[in-house]
Amino acid sequence: MAKQSVDELQQLFGELDTDHSGAIKVSEIEDFLRKKKLPPAYARHVMQHADANHDGVLTFAEFKSYLQAKDKDVRAVFNSLDLDGCNFFFCIHPGSTKTDILTQLRLFSMRSEMEH
Ligand SMILES: [Ca+2]
Ligand SMILES: [Ca+2]
To answer: How many angstroms separate the alpha carbon of residue 61 from the centre of ligand 2?
Structure first.
């Protein structure tokens, strides 16, 4: 995996790990989803799928393998996007960084997983 992608994941992990414990709890995912104006209920779904050793928290390794599995799909969508506007699912706001957009896509892919 490219170094840049790992940096992106570390940045996202850091954003989620608000108490800097080095692991992510359900409540931290919930806070993150609220900030992104998404239903906090997705947090439990993420935890169920990503918590490989079922200890109730996500380490960076668990977080990384979860998102890397998703990234194949996410990046395919990302590469095919028209980055100038809104589509049915979300808007690319002026000033969005590539990381913001990837975050939105990852959240979107979690949401579509839940709804199917
Ligand atoms: Ca934490
Ligand atoms: Ca775990």
So the answer is: 9
**Count of domains observed in the chain:** 1
CA–CA dist 55, 75 (Å, integer)? 29
Digit-coded pLDDT (tens) for 12-62: 899 999 999 999 999 999 999 898 888 888 899 889 989 999 999 999 999
Q: Which residue range(s) make up the domain with 42? A: 3-115
**Residues 50/66, Cβ–Cβ less than 8 Å:** yes
Between CA 96 and CA 111 the distance in angstroms is 21
State the distance from the centre of ligand 2 to the C-alpha of 35, rounded, in angstroms. 23
Question: Can you give the pTM of this predicted structure?
Answer: 0.64
Dist. CA 26–CA 97, nearest whole Å = 26
